[in-house]
Design goal:
The complex is a heterodimer of chains A (498) and B (127). With 498 residues, chain A is an alpha/beta fold. Chain A has 19 helices and 8 strands. In chain A, the strands form 2 sheets. Chain A has a 6-stranded parallel β-sheet. The termini of chain B are far apart.
Chain lengths: 498, 127
């Protein structure tokens, strides 16, 4: 206390200095993210952003109004105790859950901060309330009055509370589904779902407007948080596993925007910039994922794909139901050994079976036999954007062998064998050929163009969308039934004996 | 007047940051989208600052303090967890010092030791 009084007028605690530190911090965030444009600069980029975060945190702690140091230390210690081991121990296959969970706590923090802002504004946001006299010196130089805050602060604070609460609960549900604590299939009220969501949204907004207008009730604020929480649950529960890449991206955007709103309410430029960048990132990813599935974002949020009536109809229309050719690991090994070009098409099945290392062993064996190997990766393969790439990178697959869909598709025509491992809908030619198919129009990996196809799959069960895959009935396709990991390992073993 | 100009200044920052975000993030390749997500998770951990600022307020009751400690803990989880896990992932993408395709003849033999070196690095990062 004495020290802080002595320093109160010092340069280090001047508002301008703190503001300059914030500017340095967000410049480092932007510079760091620019590094993510390529794998060679990405590690440094991430570290640059981390330095920016350290500077922003230190700048905040220099704020002359800062206090409660013991509680700050406690909160940070708790966060480090949870965050560090989690980040170090998480398996790469569990990365979607991890990202969902981290995203959720971010949204939760935003909601809690908004709640305290509300409590501390004397339980009223009305701008004509009598000032209590207490003032918090603000980094910007303006001071905000406790008890009665400007209306715009109330608007941003309420927005942050609602969106933060939706993001917290939505992310937790997504985590539960990905961790398989909650069933991955859609859970919904059926046709009433959209009406329920709409009612919840209207209730949350009505409570928010009431609070902004100056309603003197903390109960109302808590009610608003609860309704937003229910909305978060109601939106994510009906969404099936394969739509997860979109949901996680969308929740990521939500958390970012709510952080930016908190920055507006607290008049903190670092929060505004960082929040908006995350919001932009989440929005871009959401759009990419949705267009890679040829589905609109509202349609995905409305939920209920898979197991619906339309899907059953399309299944009946599948006149391609010819014979399926099954193969053995030994035959697959011969087929691969005599190919000059092999493309591996991984899907969620590879992640479930944790087969990425086995796959890498197989492709090493093939490369030793002068086979040209690459990997074709659909944007929505797996449960989050870029999921397959991370797994393959973990298994030490060279970065330049990982091909994005647009680069991979023209190459299939001169590919001898496409090896499909645990991928289904993203290879289904029905998306191109069958206008009645629910996935018609979705961009796919055109493996059917290659000279032959080997599909490793546990059974003939249709994929997430519940649609028969014509590819399996194609005469040039052979099916190797079994767990992805053991099937791939068997092929590698057979290959070694050739 | 001060409040109005604060609002408009901050709105300008908000809008410009949105545009910069779009430009910068658009350049990130699909391959790096998972690290991008975990990296942006770390960055929105900046809400930690909000918790820290509010803990500096005078006259917080015990309940508000408890909420803020949780918020600070959440923000810290985001920041340290997010940056660490992103670093782990990106190290895996990076660990390719030599061009893998140029020497395919001997590549089969030499990629063995190279591969084990890479996974060794990964474990170093984890411990």
């Amino acid at each position: 206390m004495i020290v802080s009084t002595l320093l109160a007028t010092s340069f280090l605690q001047s508002e301008d200095f703190i503001y300059v530190l914030y500017i340095v911090a967000f410049a480092l965030f932007i510079q760091g993210l620019r590094g993510l444009a390529g794998p060679t600069t990405a590690v440094r980029g991430n570290r640059i952003a981390a330095v920016g975060m350290a500077i922003a945190t230190i700048a905040t702690l220099l704020n002359p109004g800062e206090g409660n140091w013991g509680l700050i230390a406690l909160g940070i210690a708790l966060g480090v105790a949870v965050g560090v081991p989690a980040a170090r121990q998480v398996k790469m296959t569990a990365m979607p859950q991890m990202v969902a969970l981290f995203n959720g706590v971010g949204g939760g923090a935003v909601a809690l901060i908004s709640w305290v802002e509300f409590r501390h504004s004397g339980s009223t946001y009305g701008s004509h309330t009598v000032h209590l006299g207490a003032e918090l010196l603000h980094p910007l130089g303006a001071s905000i009055q406790i008890g009665g805050v400007p209306t715009y602060v109330a608007i941003f604070s309420v927005f942050a509370a609602i969106v933060g609460s939706i993001s917290f609960w939505g992310s937790n549900i997504a985590f539960g589904k990905l961790q398989e604590i909650i069933p991955g299939r859609p859970i919904s009220f059926g046709s009433a779902q959209q009406a329920v969501n709409l009612v919840l949204l209207v209730l949350a907004l009505a409570a928010g407007v009431d609070l902004i207008a100056g309603a003197h009730s903390e109960l109302l604020f808590i009610g608003m948080l609860i309704v937003a929480a229910l909305l978060g649950n109601a939106v994510v529960l009906p969404i099936g596993g394969a739509d997860m890449p979109v949901v996680i991206s969308l929740l990521n955007a939500f958390t970012g925007l709510s952080a930016a709103a908190t920055g507006m309410a607290l008049n903190n430029p670092a929060l505004i910039v960082a929040g908006m960048i995350v919001g932009a990132s989440g929005t871009i990813l959401t759009r990419l994922m949705a267009s890679a599935m040829n589905r609109s974002i509202p349609a995905i949020v409305a939920g209920g794909f898979g197991g619906g009536g339309a899907v059953a109809g399309a299944e009946g229309a599948g006149e391609h139901a010819g014979t399926v050719r099954s193969t053995s690991a030994a035959d697959a090994a011969i087929q691969l050994a005599y190919a000059s070009r092999v493309v591996v098409v991984p899907g969620y099945g590879m992640a479930v079976a944790q087969a990425q290392h086995a796959v890498r062993e197989l492709t090493k064996e093939l490369e030793a036999r002068q086979v040209d190997v690459s990997y074709a990766i659909h944007p929505v393969a797996g449960r989050m954007p870029g999921h397959m790439n991370v797994l393959l990178a973990e298994a030490d697959v060279p970065y330049d062998q990982l091909k994005e869909m647009d680069d991979a598709n023209p190459e299939f025509a001169r590919t001898d064998v496409s090896l499909v491992i645990g991928a289904n809908d993203v290879t289904n030619p029905a998306a191109k050929n069958t206008p009645s198919s629910p996935i018609y129009g979705m961009p796919i990996l055109e493996v059917a163009d290659s000279r032959s196809v080997i599909v490793i799959k546990r059974s003939m069960n249709p994929g997430f969308a519940g649609i028969e895959n014509e590819l399996y009935f194609d005469p040039k396709t052979s099916m190797l039934f079994g767990d992805a990991k053991s099937a791939v390992s068997e092929i590698t073993a057979e290959l070694a004996q050739l | 007047m001060i409040l109005a100009s604060t609002l408009t200044t901050n709105l300008a920052i908000l809008v410009l940051a949105g545009f910069i975000g779009f430009v910068v993030i658009s350049k990130v390749p699909n391959t790096l989208h998972t690290p991008l997500m975990s990296g942006t998770n770390a960055i929105h951990g900046i809400v930690l600052l909000g918790g820290l600022l509010l803990l500096g307020l005078a006259g917080l009751d015990a309940f508000s303090k408890a909420l803020l400690v949780i918020a600070v803990a959440f923000g810290t989880i985001n920041i340290v967890g997010g940056f660490l896990v992103t670093d782990r992932m990106l190290e895996m993408f990076k660990s390719k010092p030599k061009p893998p395709k140029a020497d395919e003849g001997e590549g089969g033999a030499s990629s063995g030791p190279g591969g084990s070196g890479g996974s060794g690095d990964g474990q170093g990062g984890r411990s």
